[in-house]
Amino acid sequence: MSLLLRINLALLAVFALGAIVTGLVCRAQLQGNAEHEIRAEAQLMMDSALAVRDYTASEVAPLLQTQMQSRFLPQSVPFYAATEHFLHLHAERPDYSYQEATLNPTNLRDRATDWQADLIQRFRQDPGARELSGERDTPMGRTLYLAQPIRASAECLSCHGLAANAPASVIARYGSSNGFGWQQGDVVGAQVVSVPIASAAARASSAFRAFLISLLAVFAALLLVVNAVLYLLVVRPVRAMAQIAERLSVGDASAPEFPASGGAEIAALGRAFNRMRTSLDKAMKLLGS
């Protein structure tokens, strides 16, 4: 096995081990960044929904108070405003969603699905819970969900307490069968945000592939440079010395001197061989005389 081949095999082994370790660390870091990015998107959507609700309660509802005496305007309800706001986003980004899911809503559009109802029950069982999150499979792909509890406040009971006490405009719009009987402080629903995982995961995979390609390119360039340097400084001078030594071993006195080129050590070896050859020639002449 040649010297170059042995060195290349050693370099390949070192590179393979380094690539495995570096790849695992890099992949874990990219996946962690992707998870952080997805969660940040979900939190941003949740904060945006809370901002819409607060704006509606403080700025829009007072302006519609007079009209509300004659007919119910859902635009004055913070829950309705936040839901409608994100329905426009959902139309453009169907894999992003927001819902204020309740177990007993006046608007049946807001009724909780089975998995959302499970979240609401978990909030009810753990009154101290402020947030739940996890992953689930959907027809649009795997998503991260973020949920916060909705508790009935005193303001809620003005419309969602006893049906007999509800505003006539609410009864006229939604009827008296749903959305009543809430108790103050009870968890009646959950704000649920869903964010797709695929896009962030795809970006992480793309970055990982780019990293591996770059790593391979750097290694290939390094291997070429190492091979070129070894050939010029070690292999070629040693081969030349071996050819000269072979000619001298069969008595060819016309063989040229050993080259003193290449690396410092190889050049020193060539000079040493030349001195040894000179000494042998002198010794042979003395023996011949």
Q: What does this 3D model show about the protein?
A:
This protein has 289 residues and is an alpha+beta fold. The chain has 2 domains: 183 residues, 2-Layer Sandwich (Beta-Lactamase), CATH 3.30.450; 84 residues, no CATH class. It has 8 helices and 4 strands, in the order H-H-H-E-H-E-E-H-H-E-H-H. A 4-stranded antiparallel sheet has the order 1-4-3-2. Helix 1 packs antiparallel against helix 3 and helix 1 packs antiparallel against helix 7. The radius of gyration is 40 Å and the shape is rod-shaped. The two termini are 45 Å apart.
Low-confidence stretches: none
Shape, principal axes of CA atoms: rod-shaped
Query: Architecture of the largest domain, according to CATH?
Result: 2-Layer Sandwich
Broad CATH class of the largest domain:
Alpha Beta
Distance between the termini: 45 Å
Strand residue percentage = 5-15%
Fraction of helical residues: 55-70%
Question: Topology as H/E string?
Answer: HHHEHEEHHEHH
The pLDDT mean sits at 84
What strand line-up does the widest sheet have? 1-4-3-2
Radius of gyration: 40 Å
Number of domains: 2
How many individual β-strands? 4
- Give the number of helices: 8
Brief characterization of the structure:
The chain is of the alpha+beta class and 289 residues long. Helices cover 62% and strands 12% of the residues.
Map the helices and strands.
Elements: H1 3-60, H2 65-68, H3 78-92, E1 97-102, H4 114-125, E2 132-138, E3 141-151, H5 154-160, H6 168-174, E4 187-196, H7 198-249, H8 264-288
Antiparallel strand pairs: 1-4, 2-3, 3-4
